[in-house]
Write a structure and sequence with these properties.
This protein has twelve helices and 19 strands. Helix 1 crosses helix 4 (108-118). The protein is elongated, with a radius of gyration of 30 Å. The protein has helices at residues 32-43, 58-64, 77-87, 108-118, 162-170, 180-186, 206-219, 261-274, 279-282, 296-308, 331-342, 360-363, and strands spanning 3-9, 26-27, 30-31, 48-53, 69-72, 95-100, 123-129, 134-138, 141-146, 152-154, 158-161, 191-195, 222-236, 240-242, 245-247, 251-254, 311-321, 349-354, 367-378. The chain folds into two domains: 3-219, Spore Coat Polysaccharide Biosynthesis Protein SpsA, Chain A (Alpha-Beta Complex), CATH 3.90.550; 222-378, 60s Ribosomal Protein L30, Chain: A, CATH 3.30.1330.50. Strand 14 (240-242) and strand 15 form a beta hairpin. It is 31% helix and 29% strand.
Length: 379
């Protein structure tokens, strides 16, 4: 089912105040309209998006650099939606979502929920149920009460099958319906309701911009870093394990486990990001269970603790410090192995190698050191 999207952005938004229509004002450095368009581009890549703008806003719209179709709206919302539907006529869409430009926090899940309902319904809209008692009033006085179980607050995007909605708009006798679901209902279509999202509010008044800024700050991910360092003595041996890779260079690392200094440093870095101590606390050398153990066990345990702390690894950077063995021939295999262990794309794992210019224990070839930095997203 090919989906089109109409974003209605032709209004003046006078109740919101400011020196320009609210859809062109910024929240956290980005125009409201740009955020709204981006939400649909990310949720429905490749979909046909038409933004309906006011003829006076062409320059403002062009400055945003949005790659969408445009149409010019009319004096009412109904006329603007009709213009958007006409603009999508050549796109051969099967369904259409119609959304308010001033709802920049629409989620991928909500968009998909409306589309899913369209598989079995003639039309669909998200709506919020009421929790407070609802009253009717006139001239500042209560005139009655309403059954809150039968009253909902409608949101967008509202979803429709394209051709039936076009026909409904063609037969429409007036040009000032409240919303598109009302147009569909007036044409005899049954409109299904899906659960709305409180975060999907419509920016309407000046204070709503502060609310939007607060929401963005609260939703911004927190990134933390942990660092690790490990050293092991070198000796003549047939096999060395380093960053999860078996190396045959006539040298080995001495330690209680397999002495993989790269994975030990990375384990400590992940534990640091998780705020979970160090590798020695979890895998003490005095414990015979870890004699000769593969160090990937240590790393996986650290990742589990990071997950329990609400974190997710997003990047790892490891530096190997030694004169021997040469890391270059094994770098790609090391990156690949660590990417597999961390569940990361290869581009998110970096391996570096350096020497100490013949200085110190690494310069004399007595040992090998490794440093690691792990970056995690929390929450």
């Amino acid at each position: 089912m090919k989906t089109g999207v109409i974003i209605v952005a032709a209004g003046r938004g006078e109740r919101a105040g400011g020196d320009r229509p609210k859809q062109y004002r910024e929240i956290a450095g980005e125009a409201v309209l740009a955020r709204t368009v981006r939400a649909f581009q990310q949720a429905l890549p490749g979909s046909e998006i038409c933004v309906v703008i006011n003829t006076d806003d062409q320059a403002r719209f062009d400055q945003l650099g949005l790659q969408t179709r445009i149409a010019f709206g009319g004096a009412t919302r109904t006329a603007s939606v009709r213009a958007g539907l006409d603009a999508l006529e050549t796109a051969a869409v099967d369904s259409v979502l119609i959304h308010d430009a001033a709802r920049p926090f629409v989620s991928r899940a909500l968009i998909q929920s409306v589309l899913d309902k369209l598989l079995t319904a003639e039309a669909a809209l998200p709506a919020l149920g009421m929790t407070d008692a609802l009253l009717s009033a006139r001239d500042g006085e209560m005139t009655g009460s309403l059954n809150r179980d039968e009253v909902f607050a409608a949101q967008t995007p509202q979803g429709f099958h394209y051709q039936p909605l076009m026909q409904a708009y063609s037969r429409l006798g007036c040009d000032a319906m409240h919303d598109d679901a009302s147009v569909a209902a007036s044409a005899g279509m049954t409109v299904a309701i899906v659960d709305g999202d409180p975060a999907n509010f419509k920016i309407t008044r000046p204070e709503d911009f502060q609310k939007a800024e607060t929401m963005l700050r609260a939703s911004e991910p927190i990134f933390v870093t942990g660092q690790g360092y490990d050293v092991h003595r070198l000796e003549a041996a047939e096999v060395m394990w380093l960053c999860g890779v078996e190396i045959h260079a006539g040298l080995g690392l001495v330690g209680h486990s397999d002495a993989d200094a790269g994975l030990h440093a990375l384990t400590d870095a992940v534990l640091g990001a998780a705020g979970a101590g160090d590798i020695g606390q979890h895998f003490p050398p005095s414990d015979p269970r870890w004699s000769g153990a593969s160090s990937d066990q240590f790393l996986m345990h650290a990742l589990e603790l990071l997950g329990q702390a609400g974190g997710e690894i997003v990047h790892a950077d490891i530096t190997i410090i030694c004169e021997r063995p040469k890391v270059g021939p094994h770098r790609d295999a090391m990156r690949q192995r660590i990417a597999e262990l961390l569940g990361l794309p290869l581009a998110r794992v970096n391996i570096k190698a350096t020497t100490t210019e013949k200085l110190g224990f690494t310069g004399r070839g007595e040992g090998l050191a490794a440093q690691a930095v792990a970056t995690a997203r929390m929450g």
